[in-house]
Amino acid sequence: MTHRISLRARVLPAVAAAGVLVPVVAGAAPASAAPAPQVGCTSGKAGLAAKLQKDITAALAGRTGTVAVGLRDRTTNTTCTLRATTSYDSASVVKVTVLAALLWDAKKTDRYLTSRESDLATAMITKSDNAATTALWKQLGVTKVKGFLTAAGMTRTVPGADGYWGLTQINVTDEQRLLSLITAKNTVLSDNARAYVLKLMGSVVASQKWGTPAGAPSSVSVHVKNGWLQRATRGWRVHSVGTFKGGGHDYTLSVLTDGNSTMNHGVNTIQAVAKVIHRDLVPTAPAASRYTPTATPQEAYVAVPRG
């Protein structure tokens, strides 16, 4: 049985019906007011969707900017979404897509990565090296990147133009699709390719291991890639995508933000969401065992057009 929770306007306490939590809605918003998007969750585990929806909403209360969230836990058949198709400048998060496209392209000709490609990929993911990313982006070309996006079903992702890969337009639906391909057997990426991506995402330097890993229990393996970018309009873009397995769960999490007044504001928003999700999915983990990211997070600044 799947349990769905999605708040609208004012929501009265849920009532139990046949063992399913059913939200009761009262008081519609004025016709002239466009309601803000709400967190929507579903789960095969009774009560979990309601708890996640409530806690994610609370974590975002009072936060400025625009936040998109995607969560999927295979073990409990749980999903949560907020602004699932809203587009964001990718910043360095697109580097996972670049690596996946490289591996997909190599698979088509049944070849291994060269030592050069492997060195560039390692620097790109573990240290967020921009020069390495640019080299691989140029090698692939936009046509091959688009070919991978089509094969992966990432239909709303648009590669950045004129070599500005950090301005690729991404959304949580496609990021979650990418993370799903990385963490489960499929025909797009080979098993070896998936293991390689996870190995690199699990070897990110400590100063860049912030965001979605915040609050993850020690029983969970962590794989992450982050990004940030400041522009003249809409302030800071700050994003984090991660995969987590252990403690009886197997889940992926994407949090994309923009309109942040500072980089730290975006980081703190992502980590507030991540902490409640890890806690709700793995509630038995002791607080002392949960991951605390660095207080001085770092990430590469990506190139954008002047003006």
Describe it for me?
- It contains 7 helices and 11 strands.
- It is 34% helix and 24% strand.
- The protein has a single domain (65-289), classed as Beta-lactamase, CATH 3.40.710.
- α1 (48-60) runs antiparallel to α7 and α2 (94-108) runs antiparallel to α6 (191-201).
- β9 (221-230) and β10 (236-246) form a beta hairpin.
- The chain has a 7-stranded antiparallel beta sheet, sandwiched between helices. Strands 2-3 form a two-stranded antiparallel ribbon. A two-stranded antiparallel ribbon has the order 7-8.
- The N and C termini lie far apart (53 Å).
- It has helices spanning 48-60, 94-108, 115-126, 130-152, 172-183, 191-201, 263-281; strands at 3-6, 10-17, 20-26, 40-43, 66-73, 78-82, 88-89, 169-170, 221-230, 236-246, 249-260.
- With 307 residues, the protein is of the alpha+beta class.
Task: Please specify the SSE layout and strand pairing.
Layout: E1 3-6, E2 10-17, E3 20-26, E4 40-43, H1 48-60, E5 66-73, E6 78-82, E7 88-89, H2 94-108, H3 115-126, H4 130-152, E8 169-170, H5 172-183, H6 191-201, E9 221-230, E10 236-246, E11 249-260, H7 263-281
Summarize the structure.
The protein has helices spanning 48-60, 94-108, 115-126, 130-152, 172-183, 191-201, 263-281, and strands spanning 3-6, 10-17, 20-26, 40-43, 66-73, 78-82, 88-89, 169-170, 221-230, 236-246, 249-260.
